[in-house]
Structure formats: C-alpha cells, structure tokens
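User: My collaborator sent over this chain with a note saying "see what the structure looks like." That's all I know about it. Can you take a look?
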Amino acid sequence: MEPIERLDALPEEVTRTFHSDFVFLIDAEKIQHFPARGWTHDQILEELKKRFDHSLMVKNWQEHEIIYSPELPVFALIPRK
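Assistant: Without extra context I'll predict from the sequence alone. Here is the result:
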C-alpha cells in the first residue's frame, strides 16, 4: 500500500498525535516515533537517510511531509510546524 493510502486509513485518534517535536516511522504493523525537538529539517533528513539507507522520495499529506522509498515497507512522516 502506498504511504498516502496507509495514512488515509489511520483513525483520527492516531493522526491527531502527529506533533512537530517528533518524527514518525510508519510501517504496516506499527507506528514509532523519535524526538526531533529543536532539530533542523536538514538534521531530520540526515537521520532518515541513515535509518533508511535508500534513495528517498518526498510527498505531502495534509501539510505533513512524507519521506519514503518505494523499496521499503516503512516511511517517515515529518509533521508540519
């Protein structure tokens, strides 16, 4: 399933938790987050490049930024500030 489709399928109780102090890692079975308070956008992208170790693409969803690789089951959501 594409990242946008997976996000659209999440209940509102989950999507309300997306806060800009965290970056969310979303895969088919779980959602994890790590703190990013005070990080620049470039610092967040560098961390995601390390974690994913693939070429990454960007999409937007409800003003949030989605970072993903079509080759990976997990993707990241960077909440809007």
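A starting point for your reply to your collaborator: The first strand starts at residue 22 and ends at 26.
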